[in-house]
């Protein structure tokens, strides 16, 4: 797979000297769903704004579909659809005009059938002649999505698409996102919620304080999450792991009075039974046994905590 | 050129104008009629003719200019300020359109509406006074140039303004006085000599004079000077807009 969005050392210093992005490099692969996870003020919106053209980067370069976002902004931007975090919409305009306007703005010829399809998909068709100000917040969010989809983007940015959205619409939204992905659209979404990233993403990127801390396959993260540790407390301290137990990759705890064994809960066999009987065979006396598990949340908090 | 985008912006803006039909077209007609009643009938009954034209007819070009200038500035400044204010500017900035295309869309729509208002006022004027237009083509040309140059100015103001007060400030403090003092309702030659000299620094004088020439075939300043003034003014606006677009001034952070 090749990168459709490629950011190199992107830095943004806002007027007033605030470093919102610190040399961010990120490759987003064609056709994937990437979730950008990060706390408030991490720089998620800033990164998206730089890629989409609302904010000028202080330094660094970005290309979208091979087009540099500055030198060939038309090539780059005509591939991009953006659903902003804020509900920014012309309040007095009719829904359908607002959506058609977006298509025109992107230079695409009029296509009433396409607009109708999108509005129906988003359950907005019966609201097409309503003024935007007459809509609820969730409906406005859907209008923003319709606007972004109106010009058939190849790369779709969803900046906190589920903020203020009920469970029902959230499901619909994931349905649409999966449908787009099946059509080969690359999707980047930002969120504060780990479950959301877990539910929908192929890869998860963690951003904090203007830095990307990690970008990993969700499966890989899940595997880390699926790993558990068995902590075996011993009656008497030991200095080295008996050679006969070498196959278990045991680690001696800090106090020398415990052994740590990592295993995969989803593996066919965890090897715990064998380990315990082998320990007994080596004459080691166990005092206590406990397990611990790291969740994506732990990983996330750990990463963000370390960086702070 | 992304012509589809220009068209989309233009139509979007024109829809907004027609949605507010009352403010857009009825109020200029009403206020012009009031000017005719107050200036034309009340004052006109005391002043027979100005430069051989009845006072009622004499103020028509000035009245049209007054409306067209204020309308162009207001339309264009509001047109680009509003998306900044409500945040929909994100869409313009993230679309594959150049700033020039954005400008053509907004300025084109603002100028079109001002032109319509100007023509409606001209139509209204025929109801109140006898009018013969000496140079109709030149009249339309002057009207068009004024619409476009003041829409450019409005566009600059709209980008510059950070709040609604600032949006009103320039039209209120600069444009209205310049237009009133630019000979809309009187001939420059009616002023004392000192004021005549000062008035010559007012660019609006040249526009109104040229426009009046198109109506009556008489001008206070030469027509060449009038054209030069419009060209300079338009050039200055385009230069400022060029700079804004280059730097992203008050559009991008
Ligand atoms: N126009 C601006 N001028 C100055 N600072 C800004 C501007 N926009 C954002 N910032 C700052 O940059 C930092 C990153 O903001 P950004 O909006 O990118 O965060 P975010 O990750 O999207 O947060 P959230 O989850 O709250 O949406 C914040 O500290 C913010 O205050
Ligand atoms: Mg944000």
Q: Kindly provide the radius of gyration of chain B, computed on alpha-carbon positions and rounded to a whole number of angstroms.
A: 19 Å
Helix content of chain A: 25-40%
With helices defined by DSSP (H or I, 4 residues minimum), what is the helix count of chain B? 10
Structural class of chain B: mainly alpha
- Low-pLDDT residue intervals, each spanning 5 or more residues of chain A: none
Oligomeric nature of the chains: heterodimer
β-strand amount of chain A: 25-35%
Domain ABC transporter (chain A): 5-234
GO molecular function (chain A): ATP binding; ATP hydrolysis activity
Keywords (chain A): ATP-binding, Nucleotide-binding, Transport
InterPro entries (chain A): AAA+_ATPase, ABC_transporter-like_ATP-bd, ABC_transporter-like_CS, ABC_transporter_ATP-binding, P-loop_NTPase
Walkthrough of the structure:
The complex is a heterodimer of chains A (308) and B (253). Chain A has ten helices and 14 strands. Chain A has 308 residues and is of the alpha/beta class. The longest helix of chain A is centred in the middle third of the chain and has 16 residues, at 167-182. Chain B has one domain (3-247). Helices cover 77% and strands 2% of the residues of chain B. In chain B, α2 packs across α5, α3 runs antiparallel to α7 and α9 (203-216) packs across α10 (223-247). In chain B, 45% of the residues are buried. The mean pLDDT of chain B is 88. Classes of the chains: A alpha/beta (308), B mainly alpha (253). Chains A and B meet through α2 and α3 of A and α1, α3 and α4 of B. The complex binds adenosine-5'-triphosphate and magnesium ion. Adenosine-5'-triphosphate (ATP) binds next to α1 of chain A.
